[in-house]
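Running this now, will post back.
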Amino acid sequence: MTWLLDCDGVVWLSEQAIAGAPEALASLRASGSRVVLLTNNSYPRRSDHLAKLERLGMPTDPADVLSSAMAAALLLEAGERALVLGGPGIIEELTARGVATVTPGAGGEIGPVDAVVVGMDPSFDFSSLAAAATALHAGARLIGTNDDPTFPTPAGVLPGAGSVLAAVARAGEVTPTIAGKPYPPTVGLVRERIGEVEIVVGDRASTDGMLARRLDARFGLVLTGITPAGHGHLDPEPDLEASDLLALVRAELG
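Update: finished.
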């Protein structure tokens, strides 16, 4: 059996492991299940995700860590050029794909680009927005790593990549193609790299839950991230729900 777990709000919040998450992963692996981590956060590099999992007591095989940056890179071809509003994770995956990258803060003229790729970007400002809009009005296509409007942290909910993407799409007057959960590029990435998935666990029905439906998997909802206890109707409704990942795993494994 393969479990596909979201990261932010499920196994960690920023640099803190969510209580019980390391034990939950250990229990799943001891049961013979494969555990795959899939995050919509495109900012970190793959090595950053792996180092963080190691540091938080959840060491993971590199083949079992996927991100929206990987899915976004599949939407470009080798030899293309992209303006990136985001972090090193996007640049790493685009470079591996053979795509040349440029960032708004690099200095000098940006020049023609084939695509504008938008992800989590804490340095986003008016000059970034202007550079992206100029490229889009010149004919570049817009790719969002994900459209999550918010991002859970220990200090509360902060704006997510979707908030930046919305501003860029509005200024560029275009409709973006979105790579991350629950959209087709990520569905294809999971099917190609992982194969069949039985359970998707996340904290947001519109992304994790919808991805589960598109993978023909069950959706397990945990209440340690975006969705609070006492929530109302969700679309889709979870097949499993628990206060946190450890409680959900214990209920499933018995």
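The domain at 70-178 is CATH 3.40.50.1000 (Rossmann fold). More later if anyone needs it.
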